[in-house]
Amino acid sequence: MIRLGVFDRLKDGRIIYSYTIYNTRGEYVQLLNYGASIHKICVLDRNGKLGDVVMGTADGRALEENMTCEGSTIGRVANRIKHGRCTVDGKELHLDCNMAGHFLHGAGGNYAHRLFEASADEENNTVTFHVYDEGEGGFGCGVDARLSFCFDDDARLSLSYEFFPEDTTVISPTNHVYFNLSGKDARDQILVINTDQKASRDEEGLPCGGTESVAETPADFTVPRTIRAGMEQEEKESGPYFGHLPKRYDEFYVLPKGHEGPAAVLYDPESGRELKVYTDMESLIIFNNIEEKPAAGKDGILYEGYCGLSLETQFVPNAVNCPGFCSPVFRKEDVFRSTTIYAFSVRKQ
Predict the structure, then answer these.
(1) d(Cα 28, Cα 324) in Å, to the nearest integer?
(2) What pTM was computed for the model?
(3) CA geometry: angle at 307 spanning 40 and 297, to 5°?
(4) 29: which strand partners?
(5) Per-residue tens of pLDDT for the chain, all 349 residues
């Protein structure tokens, strides 16, 4: 079942609609047509209690002003392109730079701040969002972007991307959802990432081609451990890793070619909830959401401290300038297609 609702209005009066997809167990996902956003994912814990496991914003004004883009679709290109420069088919693109001299998250064309058209397919428990991207952010050529969200009776949320470019361009979207399986300190949840390689970075922190091992570093989640344990390892063993306080992961993992099984598994011992992330993309990015002061969230909740963790699937950031990674360049005759699945379950004690 899919239920249509009115979430709020934008400053210019346009309506933000919500689309709530229910499965037969009473679990549900709520999506917004603003930013093609994941606003809620409510799934059962080991005691049969429903709980929301993602962060979200309170109202339309907060969505428009939200710079952290909780739950939003990021496009046409997520993350960074160095100095906003890249060359596609011999043509140099000069993209908008909005973060320390680099292009980030689509810059002025970020899909997180677009109102999408939407259609619901009740028979298949699917909502599809559509937007036409005219080339904002400096890309120049149009892209027809479609995103479909399906939530099934096994509590699997599938996000499928389908982008049709009108000319040669760079395409690398993601969804910027932050997970917290208990609503408490996200550092106490247990993480596994099924790769031992991360992208090598230059002096400005951008991937520069090639990979390096995560072994014996705080980035090593090849065996299960809490996020807190990873952060504490720096002090015990590995030397400088976090260049700022409070400590925050912002790591670009490179998955093995032809990888099978989940790219990442997140588990909360208290609730018993487990999340497995499946993807056909090359990279998984983890990033902590940290609120140093209480910040208003949805449903009257105040977010504070380590509120959530992103598990973003996409091409390696700056891959357009790094020939060693999968290329995010697509031509007029190409179609970009990709699927990420967030599969929820419960571990019994």
Answers:
(1) 40
(2) 0.96
(3) 50
(4) 21, 41
(5) 999 999 999 999 999 999 999 999 999 999 999 999 999 999 999 999 999 999 999 888 888 887 778 999 999 999 999 999 999 999 999 999 999 999 999 999 999 999 999 999 999 999 999 999 999 999 999 999 999 999 999 999 999 999 999 999 999 999 999 999 999 999 999 999 999 999 999 999 999 999 999 999 999 999 999 999 999 998 776 668 998 889 999 999 999 998 989 999 999 999 999 999 999 999 999 999 999 999 889 999 999 999 999 999 999 999 999 999 999 999 998 999 999 999 999 998 7
Helix segments in 100-235, DSSP class H = 227-233
What is the separation of C-alpha 140 from the centre of its chain, rounded to a whole number of angstroms? Answer: 25
Question: CA 306 to CA 294: how far, in whole Å?
Answer: 11
Helix H segments across 46-199?
Answer: 60-65
Please tell me the distance from the alpha carbon of residue 174 to that of residue 159, in angstroms, as a whole number.
10
**Both tokens of residue 147?**
């995103």
Cα–Cα distance measured from residue 67 to residue 309, given in angstroms and rounded to the nearest whole number = 16
DSSP label at 124?
Answer: G
Cα 9 from Cα 59, distance rounded (Å) = 8
Please state, in angstroms and rounded to a whole number, the distance separating the CA atoms of residues 220 and 235. 15
Nearest to 193 by CA among 216, 159, 227, 161: 227
Q: How far apart are CA 19 and CA 37, in angstroms?
A: 10
Structural contact between residues 329 and 302, judged by C-beta atoms closer than 8 angstroms: no
Which CA distances in Å does 191 have to 53, 109, 208, 264, 309? 15, 33, 26, 7, 10
Report which of 8, 28, 12 is spatially closest to residue 20, judged by C-alpha positions.
Answer: 28
User: How crowded is the C-beta side of 100, counted as CA atoms within 13 Å?
Assistant: 7
Q: Which residues contact 194 (CB under 8 A, 6 or more apart)?
A: 222, 255, 259, 261, 262, 263, 264, 265
Angle at 133 between CA 97 and CA 7, to 5 degrees: 100
